Amino acid sequence: MKFPLACDAFPPVALAPEEREALQTLAERELADAVAQLDRHVLQDGGVVDRRRWKPLKTREHIAVYRERAAAAFHRQCHSPSSHNHSSTSSSDRSPESSF
């Protein structure tokens, strides 16, 4: 898949070594979390997407992007143990496409 912008489309960003390391650690953590979620999905659901929960947005070169349906996100939020402590998380925080 070709990136739609030229390599020099964005100016370079100057970072202190600590900032660079913190961002690298964050990226590695996010990637590890995404891989763990995929592994759970394959093991628990056989890799099959629940179309009642996830709305397909786009497919390109054997990669599909989905958005969590609002009703499914609302239902999960209302029935999760964390909903009793009044914490909230928007569905966009849990969407698979947020990692793209």
Structure description:
The protein is of the alpha+beta class. The chain has two domains: 16-47; 49-100, no CATH class. Helix content is 39%, strand content 13%. It contains two helices and two strands; from the N terminus they run αββα. The chain has helices at 17-45, 70-79; strands at 54-60, 63-68. A two-stranded antiparallel sheet has the order 1-2. It is extended, with a radius of gyration of 17 Å. Mean pLDDT is 81; it is low at 85-100.
- Gyration radius (Cα, Å) is 17 Å
Strand order of the largest sheet: 1-2
Q: Count the E strands.
A: 2
Largest sheet: 2 strands, antiparallel
Mean pLDDT: 81
Helix content: 25-40%
- DSSP strand content: 5-15%
Provide the low-confidence segments as ranges.
85-100
Shape: extended
- Enumerate how many helices there are, as a single number: 2
What are the main properties of this structure?
single chain, 100 residues, alpha+beta, two-stranded antiparallel sheet, 2 helices, 39% helix, extended
Write the layout of secondary structure elements.
Layout: H1 17-45, E1 54-60, E2 63-68, H2 70-79
